[in-house]
Amino acid sequence: MAKQKKPLPAMEWLQPRVRFTRWVSLIGYLALLLLIGVWNGVFADLHGARTWVVLSIVLVPLLILAPSVLLGHARGHAWLCFVVNIYFIQGVLAAFDPARALYGWAEALISLVLFCSALMYTRWKFQLDRKLAGES
């Protein structure tokens, strides 16, 4: 027996959710960039490594996705869900180090919020696009 398609939610229901999760994703994305930049640029003990080298290595995965995230592409947000897991793991590991506990918890919390908002944005954006294309 063939599986029946579920009807798409109404546009009046989808549009505010897409808008809200987009803003939460953007704020979370920029907050994560700022947190990592400030921590590694000012507070981290890099043991003699050059700051710009460490920052470029740590921020490259996020910066690769910057154009699609800033433009609001759903696929970019989907890829962001994969990439942000790296920062969640890094934050949890840093949270167990007493010298970096506050940074670790902040990074884990921001990446968790970013993951959830980007995931919901991706889902609702694709549904909205299908609804705008005439699918019911």
TrEMBL record:
Species of origin: Pseudomonas flexibilis
Q: Does this UniProt record's set of keywords contain Transmembrane helix? A: yes
Membrane-crossing segments per the record: 20-39, 51-71, 78-96, 102-121
Q: Does the keyword Cytoplasm apply?
A: no
Name of the protein in question: Membrane protein
Q: Which UniProt keywords apply?
A: Membrane, Transmembrane, Transmembrane helix
